[in-house]
Design a protein that fits this description.
Translation Initiation Factor IF3; four-stranded antiparallel beta sheet; 8 strands; about 30% helix; globular
């Protein structure tokens, strides 16, 4: 039976044996990948060789937190649970990539699945393809991020190729989350709005605040990686099982940096042909 070893950052022993068989240069080693054929070819064209499929998982019990019926408020206990569970899954995926001596992980998919173990139990899964660069960065440096970890990216193979060709390197997937309770309307407000077109300001403000908190946290992670910006940002809402007046906003994207300090993107030139 597979067990967890703290020295391998929670990677099960069975997974360590699988990773050992994927080590580059090992006789008979065969890479695995969740990339499509086109993505695989473009990642190779960008100068990266797939090594193997890496994954991280965390089954997490989400605690409870009381909210005030008529007050907009973040539910900090739930926000922290959702953030920590995702981070555990991502860090275990990165640990598998590091065990393969990979430079990064491309095509990352991060998902949440409810489990039947309990009403408040969910599994967070991160999966992607570990890759090794054919050569150092143009300035002779490492493709890993400033924390010495393999970079992570949820860009498609096509977008990854475009990013590298444009002179940028991925640093890591950055994310922000906020679980927020949206206040109920008072009965007097409900009755006064019947038959009228009117903005429900407390609902607007709640959703606006929750999105801003998620976006700000994602941006803070990018700043910690010394990124120039974040590309491919996705902002989504998840209701999970917390009731119809509680929702989670989740922001995620890939932090990037230019490969050269003096980098500029070359613009295509237009050639005009005059007939006659």
């Amino acid at each position: 039976m597979s067990t967890f070893d703290p020295t391998t950052q929670g990677i099960p022993a069975d997974a360590m044996r699988r990773l050992a068989e994927l080590q580059p240069g090992r006789p008979g080693s065969i890479f695995t990948s969740d990339l499509s054929v086109n993505e695989f070819l473009l990642v190779r064209e960008a100068g990266f060789k797939p090594i193997g499929l890496v994954l991280g998982s965390s089954i997490y019990h989400v605690g409870m937190q009381m909210s005030r019926w008529s007050q907009n408020q973040e539910l900090g206990t739930l926000s922290q649970a959702m953030y920590h569970a995702r981070e555990l899954a991502m860090s275990r995926m990165q640990a598998e990539a590091a065990a393969l001596n990979a430079d990064g992980i491309v095509g990352v998919r991060l998902s949440v699945e409810a489990r039947e173990f309990g009403a408040d139990v969910v599994e967070f899964i991160a999966i992607g393809t570990a890759v090794k660069a054919d050569a150092p960065t143009p300035d002779g440096g490492s493709w890993r991020n400033n924390k010495g970890q393999p970079f992570t990216s949820d860009l498609s193979g096509q977008d990854f190729w475009t990013l590298i060709r444009a002179g940028y390197a991925p640093l890591g997937m950055t994310m922000g989350t906020c679980v927020y309770h949206i206040a109920h309307q008072r009965m007097s407000s409900v009755l006064s709005n019947i038959g009228r077109n009117v903005e429900i300001e407390q609902f607007t403000q709640a959703l606006y605040d929750a999105r801003e908190l998620a976006m700000a946290r994602m941006q803070a992670e990018a700043e910690a990686l010394h990124a120039e910006g974040i590309v491919g940002v996705q902002l989504s809402a998840h209701n999970h099982r917390w009731g119809h007046h509680t929702t989670e906003f989740f922001a995620i994207g890939t932090a990037v940096r230019p490969l050269r300090p003096d980098h500029t993107i070359e613009r295509p030139t237009m050639v005009l042909s005059l007939d006659g």
